[in-house]
Amino acid sequence: IAMVFQSYALYPHMTVYDNMAFSLKLRKTPKPEIDERVKEAAEILGLTQYLDRKPKALSGGQRQRICIARALSVKPKLVICDEPVSALDVSIQAQVLNMLNELQDNLGLTYLFIAHDLSVVKYLSERVIVMYLGTVVETATSEELYSNPMHPYTIGLQKSKPTLNSDSDKLYN
Question: Among candidates 65, 56, 82, 69, which has minimal Cα distance to 20?
Answer without folding.
Answer: 69
